[in-house]
Amino acid sequence: MRLRNIACAAVVALAGSISMTAQESASSTLAAGNYQVSVLFGNNTMFNQNYNAYLLPKFDYTGAKSIGLGEAATTGTTLEKRVSDDPGAYLNIGEIGSNSVLNMIGVQGQYFLTSEIDVNAMFAMNIAGTPKRDYEDGYKYAGVAGSGLSSDYVVKPTYRYIEGRLTSSWMANVGGNYHFTFSNPKLSAYGGVRLGAQMGRVQTVRPYTGLVGDVSAGDDVHEDYEVVYTSDTRLGQVWGIQASIVGGLEYEFTTGFVFGIEVAPVAYQYSVIEVGPQGYDKFFASNHNVKIFATPNLKLGFRF
After folding, report:
1. CA diameter of the chain
2. Are 30 and 297 within 8 A, CB to CB?
3. Of 136, 154, 206, 295, which residue is most buried, by most CB within 10 angstroms?
């Protein structure tokens, strides 16, 4: 009987030791000196990257004669023709309901100063370049009597031109969080602040287009000169700064592997659009944006 009691006591002590070790292991990664690297998915933190819609100047010797956001009205009253698009349509902070779980928005790094306090930073970049390609005119068979070939016979096809383009987008932010623990050591919550900046830029170079003026139509701007020599570069850029309060929940599935959800209860952003037509003054438009429950994201991280 005594041996049985000793054995039972040993089993209970071992089970308690295992349980305590498991709890310590589950919470041990939320400690001072540890790092966490996370991939964030969800709402895009960059500006609207359809830069054609608002960054490239619409002014052209053969097209619109005004500079602004969006397409200039061609009909309506004089006042309607003078209106530019609202910059807020292109500079909105992301909100709940407009995110995609499959969209990876950046990589975040965290360092724990204590078991409750971390400092963090996140960065993302997107650069795309398209070389220009000149237009090559084609020609058809002139037709010779008795040749049996139609005058529509194509000897050399036309090669269409491609506008050269360099587009870049980037964002960066820094912040700090305070972590709260629960009775379940695998679950934690945090709240903090974040400051960020972002920028988007697009520049185009127009190649040889093959386009010429129509003298018979009264085109006295460039007559028979190619359009390429009148406006060969377009440029636009947008930048902004942001401050937000953030909060989230994290669950540590196994030691070091973390899944979480994050949202900004309050976020403020100030943005500026610059449209730069070649040879003319820049067109500026600014926007202030305050959102409640902005930029919801999912987080997958590794803590070590």
Report:
1. 122
2. no
3. 295
